[in-house]
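Please, structure for the following, as C-alpha cells.
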Amino acid sequence: MTSLMAYADAGLLGSRTAVGSRWFVPVSLGLALTVGFVTLAWLAPIGWVIAGAVLWSILLARVDLHVSDLAWIVPPMNRTAEYGVALIMVHQLGVSGVLAFAYIAAVVYHHYDIIHRVEILGIVPTWRVGAMLGGSGVRTVALVVATSSGGLPMWLTGMTVWIALIGVIESLGTWRHEFRRQANPMERDTE
C-alpha cells in the first residue's frame, strides 16, 4: 500500500478490490462522482442516497492513484464526501450536533494519525486497521443506511466509540513501539 492509498482511507473496499484489478476509475470521474454524491445526499430521497453511497464507495476504491497528476486530490475528496454527508444526514434528521461533532472528531483523529504516521515514521497503517475501521466508503454507506432506518443517533454513538477505541489504541501502540525502537539502537539492529 502506498502512502497516497493510506491517505485516501478507502479501507476494506480499497485494499481488497485493488488486488489483481484490471480496471480503474479516472481521478476526474471520481471527483465528479463525489460532487454528485454529496449533492444527491442533500437533495434526493434516502433510497437514492443509499444507492449513491454504495456506487460512490465502490468506485472510490477503484480510483487510479498511480497515473494521474490529480491523484493528490483523492484524499481530500474522500474527506469532503464523508464529513459532508455525515453533516447533511445529521441536519436532515435533526440529530444532536454533539454526536455529529464527536463522530467527525474521531474520524479526523484517525485521518491525522495516518498522515503523521506516514510522514514522520514512514509507516503505513496495516490492512487490519483499515478493515476494522471500514474506510471512508464503508463508513459512509453505513451512515446512510443508519439514517434510513432511523438509527442514526445510536449508530453515531457506537461508531464514534469504535473509531476512537480502535484508532487511539492502535495509534498509541504504533507510536510507542517506534519511539522505543528509536531509543534502543540494539533493538533496531536485530529487526
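The radius of gyration is 17 Å. The longest helix spans residues 152-183.
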